[in-house]
TrEMBL record:
InterPro entries: AAA+_ATPase, ABC_carbohydrate_import_ATPase, ABC_transporter-like_ATP-bd, ABC_transporter-like_CS, P-loop_NTPase. Keywords: ATP-binding, Nucleotide-binding. The keyword Nucleotide-binding applies. PANTHER family: CARBOHYDRATE TRANSPORT ATP-BINDING PROTEIN MG119-RELATED (PTHR43790), SUGAR ABC TRANSPORTER ATP-BINDING PROTEIN (PTHR43790:SF8). The keyword Nucleotide-binding applies. It comes from Nocardioides panacihumi. This is ATP-binding cassette domain-containing protein. It holds the Pfam family ABC_tran.
Length: 281
């Protein structure tokens, strides 16, 4: 069953993120070969492929870490050229890496506000003193909005479980692409193996948060080896094999054996043109 709500509503026909004809060359090697991919507001796309298929390279193109050799990138219909991840972030794209990039000794509230700290009012703010109480209050409101129940805001990240850390990293990115206490999310989240090394219950918590973020209108691309995760949270699957897109299909009704076949290369691409009658192989 498709979860997607926002992308099916009238007036949201423009993809949140669209890449067309993306190629990435390293010398004579084509890491990406003519990739077309899009994600709608409120949609979760699972990006699948074996090691070396091009998933990580495509994610780096989306996040601004790599500039493609050819192709175009559009965010909400507007063409962009990313020279660095900061350009992608400015366009509303946030990447959550496997290492999470959290500051271990600092508490949850500080981590949720990294780079966007609230300063104290008056002279103390002028010289850079942060308002920890205000950040804790706003962090609690944001986590409530996302339906997140985690440890107290004052708890250092180094004392959290792996699942709690992943939730903090996801929530921080969701807050950044949504804007503070803004109900209309317009951003795009790129998630790199968000449930790697998590147990069953922690994985379920992360799955729930991904769906709630999508329900708020955030467009999400999930790179993962975890097929059950895709079937739980994704609306659509895009599968790469050796730098080419070989499948793009709704999760609803997607045969798992076919999906595995596209990932391993034992199943032919669904985009290969049928051979004309009378041609010789």
């Amino acid at each position: 069953m498709s979860h997607m709500a926002a992308s099916g509503t009238p007036g949201l026909a423009t993809p949140a993120l669209e890449l067309a004809g993306i190629e990435m060359h390293y010398g004579f090697v084509r890491a990406l070969d003519g990739i077309d991919i899009h994600v709608m507001p409120g949609e979760v796309v699972g990006l699948l492929g074996d090691n070396g298929a091009g998933k990580s390279t495509l994610l780096k193109v989306m996040s601004g870490a790599h500039k493609p050799s050819h192709g175009t990138i559009r965010v909400r219909g507007e063409e962009h050229t990313f020279h660095a991840p900061s350009d992608a972030a400015e366009a509303g794209i946030q990447m959550v890496y496997q290492d999470l990039s959290l500051v271990e000794p600092q508490d949850i509230a500080i981590n949720l506000n990294l780079g966007q700290e609230q300063l104290r009012k008056g002279p103390l703010g002028w010289i850079g003193f942060v308002d920890r109480k205000a950040m804790r209050r706003s962090s609690e409101r944001e986590l409530d909005r996302l339906g997140v129940r985690t440890a107290p805001m004052t708890r250092p990240v180094e004392m959290l479980s792996g699942g709690q850390r992943q939730v903090v990293a996801l929530a921080r990115s969701a807050i950044r692409v949504t804007g503070p206490e803004d109900g209309a999310a317009q951003g795009i989240l790129l998630l790199d193996e968000p449930t790697a090394a998590l147990g069953y219950e922690q994985t379920k918590n992360v799955e729930g948060l991904i769906r709630r973020m999508a329900d708020q209108g955030i467009a999400i691309v999930v790179v993962t080896h975890d097929l059950p995760l895709c079937y739980e949270v994704a609306d659509r699957l895009v599968i790469l094999n050796r730098g080419k897109k070989v499948a793009d299909l709704p999760v609803a009704g997607a045969d798992r054996d076919h999906v595995v076949g596209w990932i391993t290369g034992s199943r032919a691409s669904m985009f290969e043109a049928p051979r004309a009658a009378g041609t010789v192989a």
